[in-house]
Write a structure and sequence with these properties.
The protein contains ten helices and no strands. The chain is an all-alpha fold. Helix 4 runs parallel beside helix 7 (111-124) and helix 4 (60-74) runs parallel beside helix 9.
Length: 183
């Protein structure tokens, strides 16, 4: 049960958000319902998400794996559920998405993907445990722009996951809808 009400007042602005969310995701997302309690938080979050959606230097699979590892480290079931759905619909290999929780033992990842996941895990620790060696390893395959995007993507996922986990937002069943369709 969420730690804050998922009920909200329907205004014309909210009706537009409901329409968009239902059109894009099939329903209004619980983090959106929570943010409706504070319009400035909502508008800032929407602006950040809209801007981040246009980032395009980093390979989408690397971005997806980094975000999923951060969500798993924090323990955000909502983020893992929605992340699987979102990345699945972006064409990311579902085998790789399913294996994130045991990524260290899985053989489905490349050396670079493992380095990205290790970096995301180190960034998510409190305090962060990122080492010079990890960054140097990434710099062998990523441009500075890609490394900045990766780092910021992990930070953004930490923002999402920590907010959702603190408010006890849990899975809305997005992943299950992916499992119904062939990958």
């Amino acid at each position: 049960m969420a730690r804050i009400s998922l009920e909200y007042r329907r205004t014309p602005f909210v009706r537009v958000l409901e329409w968009y969310s239902k059109r894009k995701y099939g329903e209004l997302l619980d983090p959106g319902k929570v943010a409706l309690h504070n319009r400035r938080v909502l508008t800032t979050t929407l602006a950040v998400e809209a801007t981040a959606a246009r980032w395009n230097q980093l390979d989408p699979t690397l971005r997806a794996l980094a975000g999923m590892v951060a969500s798993a480290e924090i323990g955000c079931s909502w983020c893992l559920d929605f992340g699987f759905w979102e990345h699945h619909h972006q064409g990311i290999d579902p085998v790789k998405l399913r294996a994130v929780s045991g990524w260290r033992d899985s053989e489905v990842y490349t050396e670079l993907e493992r380095a990205v996941m290790e970096y995301a895990e180190a960034m998510t620790a409190t305090p962060p445990r990122v080492t010079d060696e990890q960054v140097e390893r990434l710099r062998r395959d990523l441009s500075e722009g890609e490394l900045v995007e990766l780092t910021t993507q992990v930070s953004l996922e930490n923002f999402r996951s920590r907010t959702n986990a603190a408010l006890d937002l849990t899975s809305q069943g997005f992943k299950a809808s992916c499992e119904l369709r062939p990958a």
